[in-house]
Write a structure and sequence with these properties.
Elements lengths: L1 H20 L5 H8 L2 H4 L2 E7 L2 E6 L2 H9 L1 H11 L5 E6 L4
Parallel strand pairs: 2-3
Antiparallel strand pairs: 1-2
Helix pairs in contact: 2-5
Length: about 100
């Protein structure tokens, strides 16, 4: 029984240290560093999966503007998160 208790304690300590090592910066934080406040008001993170960041944009005009900046934005975000491979932009709800 003591062996099981020690094993569980060791696993929990490992999980806590891994959580502490994470910077806590997610896609929303990356975008705050890469975009202006005005641009952030028209965009929302939908998902981040397998290196692809999915973003919703509130209008076709903003979709066009951000599509023009997509490569520049991708390069900026790769500095924050090297595992990022691509960005997808779609019109959707941004509330």
């Amino acid at each position: 029984m003591e062996i099981l208790k020690n094993t569980i304690d060791e696993i929990m300590r490992g999980l806590i240290s891994k959580k502490a090592d994470c910077s806590g910066a997610g896609p929303q934080e990356w975008l705050k560093k890469a975009l202006t406040k005005r641009e952030l008001g028209h965009i929302k993170v939908k998902y981040f999966s397998k290196g692809v960041l999915g973003l919703s944009v509130d209008s076709s005009a903003w979709l066009y503007i951000l599509s023009l900046k997509k490569e520049e934005l991708l390069n900026r975000l790769k500095k924050e998160s090297p595992e990022l491979k691509n960005i997808t932009l779609r019109i959707g709800e941004v509330s």
